[in-house]
Amino acid sequence: NGNIWVYTKIISTNADCVNCEVKVVGSDGNAVSGAIVNVVNPANKMVTLKYNNGEYKGFFESLISGEYSFFIKTVNDGKSQTIEKKVGHTVITGKPKVVAISDEMGNSALNGKNLDCTKKINVDWEKTNGTIYIVTVQKDDSIIYSANTSDNYLIIPENTLEIDTNYSISITAQYLEGDPFLYSVDYASQSSYDGTSIYFRTGSNNEET
Fold it and tell me: SS3 for 147-184, per residue?
């Protein structure tokens, strides 16, 4: 493309809007600031991206999944050229709601029971249109355990957590195409939706008398 390289990103988070980012790099390795960059969404609505700090950025308020078309017009050595790129995007519109957190004894954190962390802990959530779910357990804002799965359930191994400790657990649904770091391919399409954090405690459930 006349020694012009184009890198594209489409990002949507928590069903807010669809953000589009484009970086245009010239033969000297520097960002090209004088390009005209337009994006057309699957509903045939066009947005012109604005140049800011080395990238062209803009967004669509409409949350639409499908193919987005990028048109990048540059002038190189007095010659005008337009580069077209198409990138698919899937918007995650549903929050991954936790429906069960329980230990092997049947104690449910959603019912206010402490969990026996010396045994496996089962976590279940409602499935969304995400392809990957990121499960994160935190204690005092520090990540204690994190795992990725394509299922809508996960088993936290025994003795992963400490006894008599307060924790929070959250699920993030994610859909990803391309490379978010733009190393292996020149595009990234990523959507994510954070679920509500659920708080629970480990330890015994002995009733006081």
Answer: EEECCCEEEECCCCCCCCCEEEEEEEEEEEEECCCCCC
Pairwise pLDDT comparison (27 vs 77), residue with the higher score: 27
Owner of token pair 């206010």: 112
Cα separation, 79 vs 75, whole angstroms: 5
Torsion of CA 24, 175, 142, 105, to 10 degrees: -170
Could you tell me if residue 94 is left (phi over 0), alpha (psi between -120 and 50 degrees) or otherwise beta? beta
> Encoding tokens for residue 139?
């204690």
Give the percent of the chain with pLDDT over 70.
96
Q: What is the pLDDT of residue 85?
A: 96
Strands (E), 14-165: 18-25, 36-40, 46-48, 50-52, 55-60, 66-76, 79-89, 98-103, 121-125, 132-139, 142-149, 153-156
Residue 206 has pLDDT above 70, yes or no: no
* Three-state secondary structure call for residue 129: coil
* Cα–Cα distance for residue pair 163/131, rounded to 1 Å: 33
Q: 20 pLDDT exceeds 90? A: yes
Q: What angle do CA 85, 86, 88 make, to 5 degrees?
A: 150
Residue with the two structure tokens 């392809």: 131
pLDDT score, position 131:
83
Instruction: Note whether 120 and 157 are within 8 A (CB).
Output: yes
